[in-house]
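Table S2 (continued). Query chain:
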Amino acid sequence: MQLTVRDVAGLLNVSEKTIYRWIKDRSIPAYRINEQYRFHRAELLEWVTARKVGVSVDIFQEAGDATAQATSLTEALLAGGIVYRLVGTDTESVLRAAVEGMRLPDEVDREQLLRVLVAREALASTGVGDGIAIPHVRNPIVLHVPRPTITLCFLERPVDFGALDRQPVHCLFMLVSPTVRAHLHLLSRLAFALRDPVFREVIRHQGLRDEILAEVRRVESGLVQPRPVPSAGD
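Corresponding output:
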């Protein structure tokens, strides 16, 4: 979804004047189309997560298709799994090890997936601060997979990802989705979870699998659930 200046001002709880100032300073990702600025929701989610910007809960309620709405962050993490002691000495070797460890169908071209991830990091870091990165490409990674998954990888040793806060990365959240909407749905939920200090602390300490899943469930329970659509007879 392409967002307008007014949309973004409402989502970030600031004035439109502030948004224009951020655009002028080139601190917020925006595109000029037909003399008007537009914003990509995935990039905006990255931006607010890295800068810990306060946002309206509406940003986490992106309308999606049935696949997106049916997949929670907990379900995606259960499907993708948690990998400990991932070995790598630089960005590319860490990403290679992560891709090799992901639960993907045999027909997925892992080398191609690695190439686009490495190219994305060369363009701009996916480090969102506090030693966390969410590797993905500008256009969400959409593969022939039966359902969206998140693979959480803890590194054996922190690696410099060129994050905004200059902290080396110690964990990766690898998102793979069958649709763009499903990707945005999961990215928004992950962005919401990473705003929670207790969840971030569990990740920082590389908590046990059950401990991490318990925190994910707790955080997701705080998300506002979509209102049911009234039936014709209501």
